UniProtKB/TrEMBL annotation, chain A:
It comes from Leucogyrophana mollusca. It comes from the Eukaryota. This is ARM repeat-containing protein.
UniProtKB/TrEMBL annotation, chain B:
One of its GO terms (cellular component) is U2 snRNP. This is Splicing factor subunit. GO terms for biological process: mRNA splicing, via spliceosome. The lineage of its organism: Eukaryota, Fungi, Dikarya, Basidiomycota, Agaricomycotina. It comes from the Eukaryota. Belongs to the SF3B5 family.
Length: 1158, 87
């Protein structure tokens, strides 16, 4: 830092940065849509990563219900066999594509191919590639012809798609490489989406020149669910052609002539589609019902307004442009008589879904119930045909997704095994939820998959998901693994184990093994310690993966083992026996990512071991760890730190070993400035160091880093401070010797003074260390306090606030050291600061003053309490929460301990101010205010306070009145009920409703607080209660019932049965009330009466109506009977009526044992 | 159903009640209610040693016998359930 006052050299003079920034902001503000950002945030697809959005390129297929077909004796179609064939086909396709890409790359490298794409490559190459493609195509065809499945669903995989690829390929041959590239890229997304916009988006050249070819693809009305994305519709709004009317509006009326189109020009059918900006690489959605002009217009954004009123649906909360395409059919009026049954059903489902998705809560609720009730009637097909495409909508928002998922959940429950054919489709849509960043979405996803697997059964789930296990796309495998783990938790691990074993040992593809092991990992993560019973089997399942020839499989195996060990901790080490050797051998063999995973597994296994083994294995691994300290890989760094932490925490590792073998290298590698810059590294290093300190002791660690407190990098100082704070907080400062103590305090003061951003870390550190040192800090106190005093007068409000906060923390220690002198100095300075204008700072200053008053005591307090309190009165009007809370705490404490130092007049003034605090938002503040009334009343005598409070019952605000009633009750509790009850009873005679209710409320609290003391007062309040219980006002009777309850419970066994019985008679008729709060209060009062009067009396009341002819009466009486019965079943026995006369035939109702006498 | 709607705030209480044996409802028959009363009486006798020994003296039986008989009688204290009317 440069000395104050020394001139600083500046290279140029310009306006301050803030001002420039402000201008820039202003300029930008002009054309900003303030809601644009939030709107896009709400859309799930737009805020998720590319990886998440890969869900849009998944293909779903029918999963035939094998069980059903077996029952019916028909051939299974479109089932597992087909799915597997399809999966193989896709792999083959991928391979071919890779081969093509590889070839191209080679050619480019060799310089054979020029960048000019129009140039035709040698015919031989072309043919070769073409042959390969043809082979793949042939394979596809053979599948289609052999299976010959009839598929109805429009997102289905289907034959015409192939035809679409075919013509493109065959006549694009002339266009050379470029055409091939186009078809290849297109296929990567998924070759099943053969919509025109897609192709248009990919290769502009071919498409543009062949207008007429496009619409051909439309004739095949099939898009997969995934491809219903309206990406380009959105774009369309802005890129569509201007209509004639619009042009008329834009251009001046004169000076222009409309030119007729040249002869031979025919506008294409839907020019809109071709103008889709190629930026959106989204497959296009084709509106199937092209006849519906309204929907088309709406989808294109041409419709001026979106409807909120749909025929047959009613009004909706909102309606989005994208909804129009899904709900086109119900947007216009139709003649229902012309529709077939199926069509009617479809309309009905759409209406219900629209209500659920876009309706207001009540509408949604009824619709949801209807769709659930009718689920089986609608059938799985029609339902899911409508629901699933909606879920794959790109503009879907959280709320909509939640509702649709809820629909699926409800419907699943009803449909049960009817869902089988749709399992895969549902999975494709639901699996992405499992990797959603939102926790609740993940839970929802799990719930659905778990219900799905219970409905469809294990065998069906396996046969459906099996093809995805070695899918070419990593995304698919990842989500499938997670889904499988959910299935395992739903149906039990044992039932899935044989399958898992087989998958993990798959010889055919490493992807299958990889996924299998990942399933085990996910099971461990999801089920936690529930894996313990199956631990050995699960470990057994994946153990061989450690020696797999594929690096990815080895890595995943290690991660799986880590997850298992973490889930099993601290049990189950014996299950890991077989993997110990390969793991420890592995860390010597591998490098990089593989090594990181192995280390991670070891880190989790070591804590499970017995001490002596743990010590041995730690020593083995330490060598590698120390080597990897030097790594530059962030991931590896994190894992190494974590493993060090885990090893250090195990029992078997000795402090000696840590001090000698780990600490030197550890500090050399990790305690460097660079580590403080990355947030995650920072945290890891701090955590690990704290863990090491647990073993090696405070002085060892603090001694190593204490000098760094004076480092010039602030983030690094902060990291040191945080570590010291944590170490000292857990282990204390007794280990710190004198020399270290000097360095430590010195460093702390230095870093506290040098901070540029006032940070909680520094404050906490200072407070913790000083408190831990306790009396040893005495020599430094003068210095510390002068620092505080200096900072209390600082220009920056933050600095002042921090200084005040520090005072709060140090007050106790300063008192311990006997430095009352310093305390009173601080107190005075803080007192002078009470005029502070920044509320946050003011709050801290008041809190500090309170802390000092706390330790010093009211008599020694400097400034004297009689000066301090009047100064606080105006501050009470401050509306800032922190100020309010701090000042009410201070005042409450003064009222409690030193009320006599302040004149009564001042207290009354404070009482009035306190009434305002009863409206505070924070519950703590209100509570403190209420208690302050109690303290003030006990020192001043209750009369004045009480009259203030009773008057306050007249105000409008409910909260204020409620708090007054509580305060009255507290006054009654502290000063004795006799001081308050007469006043309350008197006030009750006021004609104002609010006041009377307030009085009743106050009495409820009074009797609740005073308990058995109420026996002295119960006769006095009976007349008032009579009045209240016979009042027309419901609330009166309710509150009176609450009073009766507290009263009855208070006087139980104290001989007030006569008046209680009287009250009981008044309460009883209220048992037919229907308002929930009233009936609740009445039932409570009756229950309390059972305690006071005994169950026998109550039974005689109840018997009157148990068999009453009116059901309404019987229901209420049985309710009371049940409560009575549960409360005192045994005590009722002698009171049951003798009903022997009712005996008839075999049924004798005499209770003979009770008629016996000696 | 109607009672459930009426006591919305206390529906949970109602469910709780229904979980215990011996509680009743608006459609409980005379036989059922009295059977519960008898069982309660018998179990009360078995549960209070003074009552048991009182009965034992009155009947001239051993206490164990009384207990046993009381417990046995709990099965159908008021005889078999009356046949339901067909309507």
């Amino acid at each position: 830092m440069s000395a104050p006052g020394s001139p600083r050299l500046v290279d140029s003079f310009t306006a301050p940065k803030e001002i420039l920034q402000e201008f820039a902001d202003l300029a930008e503000e002009e054309n900003i849509d303030p809601f644009a950002e939030t709107a896009s945030k709400r859309q799930i697809a737009s805020r998720q990563s590319d990886y998440h959005n890969r869900r849009f390129s998944r293909v779903a297929q029918d999963s035939a219900d094998a069980f059903k077909h077996v029952e019916e004796g028909t051939e299974v179609e479109g089932g597992y066999k087909d799915a597997m064939r399809l999966a193989r086909l896709e792999q083959e396709e991928l391979r071919v594509r890779r081969a093509i890409e590889e070839k191209e790359r080679q050619e480019r490298e060799e310089g054979k191919m020029k960048m000019d794409l129009d140039k035709t490559p040698p015919a031989a190459e072309l043919e070769e590639v073409e042959r390969e493609l043809a082979a793949a195509h042939e394979l596809a065809k053979s599948r289609d012809t052999s299976s010959g499945t009839k598929r109805k669903r429009r997102w289905d995989v289907s034959e015409p798609t192939d035809e679409n690829v075919d013509p493109n390929r065959s006549d694009k041959g002339e266009w050379s490489k470029e055409a091939l590239e186009a078809s290849a890229t297109k296929k990567r997304r998924s070759r099943w989406d053969a919509t025109p916009a897609d192709a248009g988006a990919v290769g502009e050249t071919p498409k543009r020149s062949r207008w007429d070819q496009t619409p051909v693809a439309v004739e095949a009305p099939m898009t997969q669910i995934i491809m219903n994305a309206p990406g380009f519709q959105q774009e369309d709004k802005h890129n569509r052609y201007l209509s004639d009317e619009e042009l008329d509006a834009v251009l001046p009326a004169t000076g222009y002539a409309i030119v007729t189109p040249p002869p031979g020009y025919a506008p294409s059918v839907a020019p809109r589609k071709f103008m889709a900006t190629p930026v959106t690489e989204v497959g296009g959605f084709q509106i199937q019902e092209s006849s519906d002009a309204a929907a088309l217009a709406a989808a294109a954004g041409l419709a001026p307004e979106l409807p909120t009123e749909i025929p047959g649906v009613g009004s909706l909360a909102f309606f989005k442009a994208e909804d129009a395409q899904y709900f086109a059919k119900i947007l216009k009026e139709e003649d229902e008589t012309e529709l077939s049954v199926d069509e009617m059903k479809e309309r009905k489902i759409m209406r219900l879904l629209l209500k659920i998705k876009n309706g207001t809560p009540p509408v949604r609720k009824t619709a949801l119930r209807q769709i659930t009730d009718k689920a089986r009637e609608f059938g799985a097909g029609p339902l899911f045909d409508k629901i699933l495409p909606l879920l794959m909508e790109r503009t879907l928002e959280d709320q909509e997704r939640h509702l649709l998922v809820k629909v699926i959940d409800r419907v699943l429950y009803k449909l049960d095994d009817l869902v089988r054919p749709y399992v895969h489709k549902i999975l494709v849509v639901i699996e992405p939820l499992l990797i959603d960043e939102d926790y609740y979405a993940r839970v929802e996803g799990r719930e659905i998959i778990s219900n799905l697997s219970k409905a469809a059964g294990l065998a069906h789930m396996i046969s459906t998901m099996r093809p995805d296990i070695d899918h070419a796309d990593e995304y698919v495998r990842n989500t499938t693994a997670r889904a499988f783990s959910v299935v395992a938790s739903a149906l039990g691990i044992p039932s899935l184990l044989p399958f898992l074993k087989a998958v993990c040992r798959s010889k055919k593809s490493w992807q299958a093994r990889h996924t299998g092991i990942r399933i085990v990992q996910q099971i461990a993560i999801m089920m936690g310690c529930a894996v313990l019973p199956h631990l050995r089997n699960l470990v057994n399942c994946i153990a061989h993966g450690l020696a797999d020839e594929q690096q990815k499989v080895r890595t995943m195996t290690a991660l799986g083992l880590a997850a298992l060990a973490e889930a099993a901790a601290p049990y189950g080490i014996e299950s890991f026996d077989e993997v110990l050797k390969p793991l420890w051998l592995g860390i010597r063999l591998h490098r990089g990512k593989g090594l990181a995973a192995f280390l991670k597994a070891i880190g989790f296994i070591i804590p499970l071991m017995d001490p002596e083994y743990a010590s041995y294995y730690t020593k083995e691994v330490t060598v590698i760890l120390i080597r990897e300290f030097q790594t530059s890989d962030e991931e590896m760094k994190k894992i190494v730190l974590k493993v060090v932490k885990q090893c250090a925490a195990t029992e078997g590792v000795t402090p000696q070993y840590i001090k000698q073998d780990i600490l030197p290298d550890f500090f050399k590698a990790f305690w460097v400035r660079r580590m403080a810059l990355d947030r995650r590294n920072y945290r890891q290093v701090v955590e690990t160091t704290v863990e090491l300190a647990q073993k090696s002791g405070v002085s060892e660690i603090v001694g190593r880093i204490v000098n760094e407190l004076k480092d010039e990098a602030e983030p690094y100082r902060k990291m040191v401070m945080e570590t010291i704070t944590k170490v000292v907080a857990t282990l204390g400062a007794s280990d710190i010797d004198e020399r270290l103590e000097v360095r430590l305090v010195d460093g702390i003061i230095y870093s506290f003074q040098e901070q540029t951003t006032e940070d909680q870390v520094m404050l906490d550190g200072f407070g913790t260390v000083v408190n831990a040192l306790g009396i040893r800090v005495k020599p430094y106190l003068t210095q510390i306090v002068s620092t505080i005093l200096w900072r209390l007068n600082n220009k920056s409000a933050k600095v002042r606030q921090q200084a005040a906060d520090l005072t709060t923390r140090l007050a106790v220690v300063i008192k311990q050291c006997g430095e009352d002198q310093l305390l009173s100095k601080l107190g005075l300075v803080l007192f002078e600061q009470l005029g502070e204008e920044y509320p946050d700072t003011l709050g801290s200053i008041i809190a500090a003053e309170g802390a000092i008053a706390n330790v010093v005591g009211m008599t020694q307090m400097n400034p004297p309490v009689k000066d301090l309190l009047p100064r606080m009165t105006p501050i009470l009007r401050n509306r800032h929460e922190k100020v309010q809370e701090a000042s009410i705490n201070l005042i409450g404490r003064i009222a409690d301990r030193g009320a006599e130092f302040v004149p009564a007049r001042e207290w009354m003034r404070i009482c009035f101010e306190l009434l305002d605090l009863l409206k505070a938002h924070k519950k703590g503040t209100r509570g403190a205010a209420v208690y302050s009334f109690g303290y003030i009343a006990s020192s001043l005598g209750p009369q004045d306070v009480l009259s203030v409070l009773l008057t306050n019952l007249r105000v409008q605000e409910r909260q204020s009145r409620v708090c007054s009633t509580v305060a009255i009750a507290i006054v009654a509790e502290t000063c004795g009920p006799f001081t308050c009850i007469p006043a309350i009873l008197n006030e009750y005679r006021t004609a104002e409703l609010n006041v009377r209710t307030g009085c009743l409320k106050a009495l409820t609290f009074v009797f609740e607080y005073v308990g058995p003391q109420s026996a002295y007062y119960c006769d006095s309040v009976v007349t008032m209660l009579e009045d209240a219980l016979t009042d027309r006002d419901l609330v009166h009777r309710q509150t009176a019932s609450v009073i009766v309850k507290h009263l009855a419970l208070g006087v139980a066994g104290l001989g007030c049965e006569d008046s209680m019985l009287h009250l009981m008679n008044l309460v009883w008729p209220n048992c037919f009330e229907t308002s929930p709060h009233v009936i609740g209060a009445v039932m409570d009062a009756i229950e309390a009466m059972r305690v006071t009067l005994g169950p026998g009396v109550l039974l005689s009341y109840v018997l009157q109506g148990l068999f009453h002819p009116a059901r309404k009466v019987r229901e209420v009486y049985w309710r009371i009977y049940n409560a009575l019965y549960l409360g005192a079943a045994d005590a009722l026995v002698p009171f049951y009526p003798d009903l022997g006369e009712l005996s008839e035939g075999q049924n004798v109702y005499d209770r003979h044992p009770l008629q016996v006498f000696i | 159903m109607s009672s459930e709607l009426r006591y919305t705030a206390n529906t949970q209480l109602e469910h709780l009640h229904a979980r215990y044996t011996g509680t009743g409802h608006a459609d409980l028959t005379k036989y059922d209610w009295l059977t519960h009363q008898h069982r309660d009486t018998l179990s009360s006798i078995v549960g209070h040693p003074t009552l048991t020994s009182y009965l034992a003296i009155a009947d001239g039986e051993s206490i164990g016998r009384v207990k046993f008989e009381m417990t046995e009688r709990m099965l159908q204290p008021c005889g078999p359930p009356p046949r339901k009317d067909e309507d």
